[in-house]
Amino acid sequence: MDELQVGICEDDAQLRSVLERALRREGFRVRMTASGREAVEVFTESPPDLLVLDIGLPDADGRDVCQALRVNSVSSPVIFLTARDTLTDRLSGFSVGADDYVVKPFAVAELVARIRVAARRQAPPVTEGGMAGLEVDPVVHAVRNGERTAQLTPTEFRMLAALAARPGEIVRRNELRSAGWPDGAIVHENTLDAYIARLRRKLEEVASSETLETVRGVGYVLR
Ligand code: CA
Question: pTM, whole model, 2 decimals?
Fold first, then answer.
């Protein structure tokens, strides 16, 4: 069997080098990154078999980085590294196709065991070719189409990323709700509608050829 390629994004240099050494010793091939920006660039260019993403990155939330990678058709399973306070905060707050998470501080052996389990799971099929030139930026929460950029709020970013990760597919209203808001948040129907209207305007702002279609009573499709 080929060596498993593990892509890691962790800003703590000490933890990075501990992980790198330990995972190489396990026979994994390891590609290290230290910021959200770098992770999106490197892992879009060359998707690893599995990703380990720190949630608390200096420039972005690791969950948004994951969303941006999904939009870029990277379907590798993800294990999040999270601080305990983030966990109580809202780990399941938005659905990012997260596979697993490990709470810091953790034993490296624990992470290795989780990596082996996650790697055995089949990555979901990648949706091909729906997106013309749209790009989402998890660092500044923006959507780009060529030269044009529109600023998004974090909630708008998370909703759009959820739609853009599955172009041509219906994303249900409750999926958008859990993408954009923490678990347990009360989101009224007309609030969701207002966000969709704003996303439509922002897609127009960047002159996107994609449009956000309503599937009445069900959800929305980006195509
Ligand atoms: Ca961190």
Answer: 0.88
- In the reported structure, the alpha carbon of residue 12 is separated from the centroid of ligand 1 by a whole-number distance in angstroms of 6
Distance 59 CA to ligand 1 centre (A): 10
Distance CA 207, CA 122 (A): 36
**pLDDT per residue over 82-140, tens digit each?**
887 765 555 554 455 556 888 899 999 999 999 998 888 766 655 555 566 889 999 99
Closest CA to 68 of 15, 130, 16, 144: 144
Which two structure tokens, joined as six digits, stand for 213? 């279609």
Neighbouring C-beta atoms of residue 34, cutoff 10 Å = 18
Per-chain mean pLDDT for the chain: 88
Q: What is the CA radius of gyration of the chain?
A: 17
What residues sit around ligand 1, an ion, with C-beta below 5 angstroms? 11, 54, 56
* 221 strand-pairing partners: 213
DSSP label of 102: E
